[in-house]
Structure prediction request, 557 residues.
Amino acid sequence: MGILRGITIGQHYPVDSLLHRLDPRTKILGTMVYLVALLGANDPLPFLAVAAVTVFLCTISHIPWRLLSNGLRPLRYIIIFTFVLHLFVTPGGTLLGQLGRLAVYSGGVWRGAQLAFRLVLMILTTSLLTLTTSPIVLTDGLERLLAIFKPLGLPAHELAMMMTIALRFIPILIEEADKISKAQIARGADLESGSLLQRLQSMLPILVPLFISALRRADELAIAMEARCYRGGEGRSQYIELSFSRADKVALLLLSLGLVATLGNMLWSWFSNGV
Amino acid sequence: MSLKAKNIGLVLSPHTIYATEALADISLTLSPGTILGMVGETGSGKSSLLQVMAGLQPPTSGAVTVDELPVYGSPQDTPQVRRLIGISFQYPEYQFFEETVARELAFGLQRQGLSPEVVAERSAAALHLVQLPLSLLPRSPFELSGGQMRRLALAITFSLEPKYLLLDEPLAGLDPAGREAVMAAISAYCREREAAVLFVSHNMEEVTRVAHRLLVMRQGHLMLDATPWEVFSHAEAIQDAGLELPPGYRLLAELQQRGLEIPPSYPTDREQFYRLLRNLLT
Prediction:
């Protein structure tokens, strides 16, 4: 079950750093601004600026590079595929080499590298968000941000609660799947050989018990929540109230500047290309 | 001919801040015809050790061999290793997935390439061992009571006829009648098949009723490996391991502390215990 061990979605790495101490709302908004900036950065200079910001954030987060690069590993084929695809299908620039009907232009190399790096940066920064923020604090922040849309009928608290529970259950279910598959292997199940169909069939002794246990856990959790008088977000208070610190205010100011710069850059390149 | 663990060390989640040493330098031998009991607090490494010995969790250091065959050797040996060693996890009834009890029992047996007649024969024998009626065969395993489910799960492990049987908390969550039935089945299996059983429990009293030798685990270390009587003479070590002596032995220890001479043969059942007490007090 090596595949399951590699999953790092929603993993939290509890060390102390400036990024860890920031308010979750700052970090969520920051990630959103960052993604806009990343998608808008088409020219080399803005792109390098965004990459520099990423390296800076990763460095001050006190999270080992090894852990960050582990998060990239499950997606390495997609990243390589993106690069290779754009290498061959993008015309423009000078012709670098030709292989039958496949031609590689310098524009393709630049475009492929840019998109592959964009994926890498996107994964790094979004995983930085969950690595520096505990799931509970993260969903708390999300709930407060979504509360703006409450007048429109958005069930902000319920959405946040669902996310908390889902995040909490990921490691539990991974551990459970690991245990069940070990138990079935000990009973003689063969999970590694055979045709694709046989291997899919051999997943059944793992999936059935896993689903049964997930449903049982959900049931028990619901009963436990009701026994503690949980009745949704109405009038619910919080043990730890979120508050913006001075660092948050500085970060938000920098974010607004970044957003202005991004939008300015996008508008400028749009006009200069249009003319 | 035995299942041997030599200098086993196990580090979980290495190279992260979550890295923990689950097992440290553990060596032990499991020989046919004996029942070993293993006790220790939650998190003392009992389940990890069982998984390492069953060939399901490669150790960080050390080696495991079964009948001189390396457990973590070449993949060609794996089927034979799996056939020699049987393991039942905590709450084994959570692994059920088939529609009937009969098919649940047949799952592992069919994968050993046995004929339908042999599968039926072995299934019936295993049910008999755990004292479940054959009338359950066409029923769904999910309809059984908790105690019946546990016994069926053990019957599945028994039916594969492993020479070395590792059981993780087979008695957890059972009522007294269920415990009796499961303990009787474990003893019977060991006797009839000349098998070796390693049996993990929280409860010292229960383990000692069936175990020939007792292992005490504490924080990933194997603290004691001796006959139950010898183990109980280390009252302090047992307390350090977060465990409690069975009441009868607490009484004997108390009497010994007060200067009474206690013979070094340990009482294996209630009858012998009473006889010893009677001798001591007269």
